[in-house]
């Protein structure tokens, strides 16, 4: 609805604008169906394999596949000059939307549904410090300096260490929230004529911004999922060991393991008795 209102303010023909909304709705429904069919885990417990599937389906295959239709309709209505440029722009912009917005929305909905409480004061303090640092870094990188020769392109990497912090300490939810904040700050700065993404024509500036967000968010998401999967596997192993030890102690069994290569023996307390 917001996109349709924006197109009407820009003077797009209503029928063309409605077709664009139908294009977006179709792509979103196909993406949702693909995710539901191919990914079985809850989004906050994705495996690395499922995360790769999400990227391939929701960020690559469907955005660029449906862009073949969208670019053709755009050119046929006189809103573009080169089919493949329009295809590239549509595919990249919709891929960025999926990698930045979809995880944040799905994880946010999950958090509201579960409404977990009991976070420690230290945890809340750390999250608050991280949030302030992310906004400060994004402001310096994308919103403070006007576009021009004095704007250093290296500043775009300023938020990266904070995103790594979010990955290591707060997992997929933390990095998704941080990426959403950075995307908003970067887009806002570019719209206000500030930041490092204003060195070319408007279309190329938008593409550079979108590619930056896409290339930054994708590996961080996969890293967060890989770390989360490893932590869950380690926790499952710990719980399994505790249950085995409890069962052995309850039955008064002696459990032992002999590593022949190193000639080391591990024995439970019951076995030592």
3D architecture notes:
The chain is mainly α. The protein contains 8 helices and 2 strands. The protein has helices spanning 2-9, 14-38, 48-76, 83-114, 121-144, 160-191, 202-250, 269-272, and strands at 256-259, 264-267. Helix 3 (48-76) packs across helix 4, helix 4 crosses helix 6 and helix 6 (160-191) packs antiparallel against helix 7 (202-250). It is elongated and about 85 Å long. The termini are far apart.
Quick summary:
Helix 2 runs antiparallel to helix 3 and helix 3 runs antiparallel to helix 7. The chain is built from eight helices and two strands, in the order αααααααββα. The longest helix is centred in the last third of the chain and has 49 residues, at 202-250.
Percent helix: over 70%
SSE sequence, one letter per element: HHHHHHHEEH
Rg of Cα set: 25 Å
Share of β-strand residues:
under 5%
Query: How do the strands of the widest beta sheet line up side by side?
Result: 1-2
Protein topology:
Elements: H1 2-9, H2 14-38, H3 48-76, H4 83-114, H5 121-144, H6 160-191, H7 202-250, E1 256-259, E2 264-267, H8 269-272
Antiparallel strand pairs: 1-2
Helix pairs in contact: 1-2, 2-3, 3-4, 3-7, 4-6, 4-7, 5-6, 6-7
């Amino acid at each position: 609805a917001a996109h349709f209102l924006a197109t009407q303010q820009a003077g797009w023909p209503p029928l063309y604008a409605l077709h664009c909304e139908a294009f977006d709705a179709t792509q979103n429904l196909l993406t949702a169906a693909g995710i539901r069919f191919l990914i079985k885990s809850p989004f906050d417990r994705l495996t690395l394999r499922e995360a790769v599937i999400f990227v391939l389906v929701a960020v690559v295959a469907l955005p660029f596949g449906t862009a073949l239709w969208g670019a053709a309709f755009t050119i046929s209505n006189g809103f573009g000059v080169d089919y493949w440029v329009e295809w590239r722009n549509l595919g990249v912009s919709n891929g960025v939307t999926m990698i930045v917005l979809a995880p944040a929305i799905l994880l946010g909905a999950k958090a509201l549904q579960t409404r977990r409480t009991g976070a420690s004061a230290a945890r809340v303090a750390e999250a608050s410090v991280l949030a302030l640092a992310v906004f400060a870094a994004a402001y310096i990188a994308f919103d403070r300096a006007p576009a021009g020769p004095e704007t250093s392109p290296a500043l775009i990497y300023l938020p990266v260490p904070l995103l790594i912090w979010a990955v290591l300490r707060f997992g997929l939810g933390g990095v998704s929230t941080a990426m959403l904040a950075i995307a908003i700050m970067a887009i806002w700065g570019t719209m206000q004529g500030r930041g490092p993404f204003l060195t070319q024509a408007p279309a190329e500036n938008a593409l550079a911004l979108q590619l930056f967000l896409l290339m930054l968010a994708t590996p961080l998401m996969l890293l967060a999922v890989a770390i989360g999967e490893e932590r869950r596997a380690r926790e499952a192993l710990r719980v399994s060991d505790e249950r085995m030890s409890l069962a052995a102690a309850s039955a008064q069994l002696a459990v032992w393991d002999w590593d022949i290569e190193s000639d080391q023996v591990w024995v439970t307390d019951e076995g030592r008795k």
